[in-house]
Amino acid sequence: MKILVVEDEDKTGMFLQQGLNEAGFNTDLACNGIDGLHLALTQVDAYDLIILDVMLPGLDGWKVLETLRLSGRDMPVLFLTARDQVEDRVKGFELGADDYLVKPFAFSELLARIRSLLKRTRITPEATVLTVADLELDLLRRRVSRAGIRIELTAKEFSLLELLMRREGEVLSRSLIASQVWDMNFDSDTNVIEVAIRRLRRKVDEPYGLKLIHTLRGMGYVLEVSDKI
Amino acid sequence: MKRKLSLIWRLTGLYALVSGFVLLGLSVVIVFSIKQHFFEQDKETLQGKIQLVSSIVSEGVGAGTLPVFADKLKSGLIGHKELLVLVMNEQGVPLYSSGGVTFPLNLIKGKSSVSSPHAITWSAEGQSYRGLVVTKSTIAQPKQPISILVALNINHHELFMSRFQGALLLYVVIAALISGLLGWLAAKKGLLPLYQMRNRALAVTANQLDKRMPVENVPAEISELANALNQMLERLEDAFRRISEFSSDIAHELRTPISNLMTQTHVALSFPRDARTYQSILASNAEEYERLSRMISDMLFLAKADHGLELPSKETIELDKEVADLFEFYDALAEDHNILLRLKGKGEIQGDRLMIRRVINNLLSNAIRYTPTHSTVEVQIEASDKSTLLTVNNVGTPISAEHIPHLFERFYRVDKNRMKGNSERVGLGLAITRAIVVAHNGEISVSSTVERTSFKVTFFKNDSLITKT
């Protein structure tokens, strides 16, 4: 997966590139709009996704996107901006942007958005049973079992586990979890998510040797077969 | 852009023009009356004379001999040297003329059929005359009509009139100029407060918004304007004060966490440490960053709210349903703390769902935070014709009265020491809550006793507000 990052802020650009490379993407970095557009238009092996800062020297993000779309490039474009104005969002979407992220953002949030944008372009058949190690979640029958033993979960616990399993290996921030599971689309500064995860863990992880749900302090939660923490 | 003539010059011009016109009109009336007066005077004088002359003439002509009536006339006119007399027969042949003057024969002849005296005016050789013409029939036979003219030199009248008119005109011009000048002075003086206001306005800067327009010793109209401007200044000052307070709040609130981060990072970098320590430091930093970022977006929200919050969308919201959803969200947490969540009543309002959720969420999370274990947090919804009331009740240590008026101010913390340990809370939640409630045509209040603390949110229905005001 090839990603182009167009970002004039040196540090941000470098960290984005590093982070994305470590997440398994092949990332190029351009420091201004003109270089970015040039790279996006001339690369033989086209980019799968472009991350575009709005405020860029030379050629701003809007113009880059406009030119790209005019030349028939339809790869997903994700805007990064420090400006949080509704008009900006509207303009971005009108010009054909696929997503919009306001700085400062959690890196895990960016990764999640990138993955969902890339998924959107590929058609993957919906799985009805999610499996991680010996944990199984049956979406149709709404059942969860581990090592063959059924686990009783509340509706919200089920949704939470489903989210974690669907995004296996992705770090999910608390606000993302609150938004996806409870539809709470604002920052709630309580430890509701912590409690919910703790309860889920008690049922899904505690009785078993292999821990699947991990806490990444300062970032969020991840479900994966790993013991790096 | 075409520059308009200044008010002072306009007023000056207007004054001069008006007084000029008025005086000119008056002069015309005066001149006309004087002329009329002279005319009447002359006519009266002449009427007496013409009777005298015509009686002499009619008798004289009747006597048949010219010299006789000429002599009679001459003697009769002694003592009336200024009087000019012309006697003329039907054919226009002068029978008698008091000489030295050219008489306007055509004027006399034309009127000769009239029996009542007729006034004529003429000029000759640079002199003006006014006369009366009368046509009489001779007493003696054969009766024949003769015309008699009696006239006076009215040159002195004319001279007087022309001098008088000249004087009047001069007076009008001067008076117009003077009233213009007075107008200028009056306008200047009248507008003086405006200049003072201008100077005052020039002195108003961001640092000196406390300057006000002079309201005393100014005319009523201008004091109204000054009052209006002062009110504007007051509003501006208030808004400006809020903005600058806001900026200093931001600076202040950002300084502490950034200083923490800086110190922690510097200390961490000063010695080599193992990976776990670094990880833990970075994680702690990340938490702090997240808090900062949340604070910034909260402050942006409040900054926007200061300029009047516009609702992104408006829909019917069932409050009880929203509360139930939030209860579901807090379910696990409440259970952990052994707190019972209870909902009573139902009601709906118009508004933005996300924002209303935020309001309920803020109140609910506060309530849960400050409620001791094994107690209840109760949300009560009451709907009436005019408003919908949402109350969040919880037991717990009451909020002391001194804090109540400040609770909804941003960055206000009830217990500054207790909050220090818990960096999660920055004191914006209730300020945001109030901003949203206000944007929804509502109000929020709080009461706190030993039994319970209640946050009351009242959403007014739009039409009820109209009848209210």
Protein described:
The complex is a heterodimer of chains A (229) and B (469). By secondary structure, chain A is of the alpha/beta class. Chain A has two domains: 2-121, Response regulator (Rossmann fold, 3-Layer(aba) Sandwich), CATH 3.40.50; 129-223, Orthogonal Bundle (Arc Repressor Mutant, subunit A). Chain A contains eight helices and eleven strands. Chain A has helices spanning 10-22, 33-42, 61-70, 86-95, 107-121, 155-166, 174-182, 192-204; strands at residues 2-6, 26-30, 49-53, 77-81, 99-102, 129-132, 135-138, 143-146, 149-151, 213-216, 220-223. A five-stranded parallel β-sheet of chain A has the order 2-1-3-4-5, sandwiched between helices. Chain A has a four-stranded antiparallel β-sheet with strand order 6-7-8-9, with helices on one face. The two termini of chain A are 27 Å apart. The relative contact order of chain A is 0.10. Chain B is α+β, with helices and mostly antiparallel strands. Chain B has eleven helices and twelve strands. Chain B has helices at 7-63, 66-76, 105-110, 155-203, 220-270, 275-306, 319-336, 353-370, 416-421, 429-439, 462-468, and strands at residues 84-88, 94-97, 118-124, 127-137, 145-153, 315-318, 340-344, 348-351, 376-383, 387-394, 442-448, 453-460. In chain B, strand 4 (127-137) and strand 5 (145-153) form a beta hairpin. In chain B, helix 1 (7-63) runs antiparallel to helix 4 (155-203) and helix 6 packs parallel to helix 10 (429-439). The longest helix of chain B is centred in the N-terminal third of the chain and has 57 residues, at 7-63. Chain B is rod-shaped. Residues 417-424 and 464-469 of chain B have low confidence and may be disordered. The A-B interface holds A 84, 86, 104, 106, 156, 178, 182-192, 195-196, 199, 216-219 and B 279-280, 282-287, 289-290, 293-294, 296-298, 300, 312, 325-326, 328-333, 336, 354, 357-358, 361, 365, 368-369, 424-425, 429.
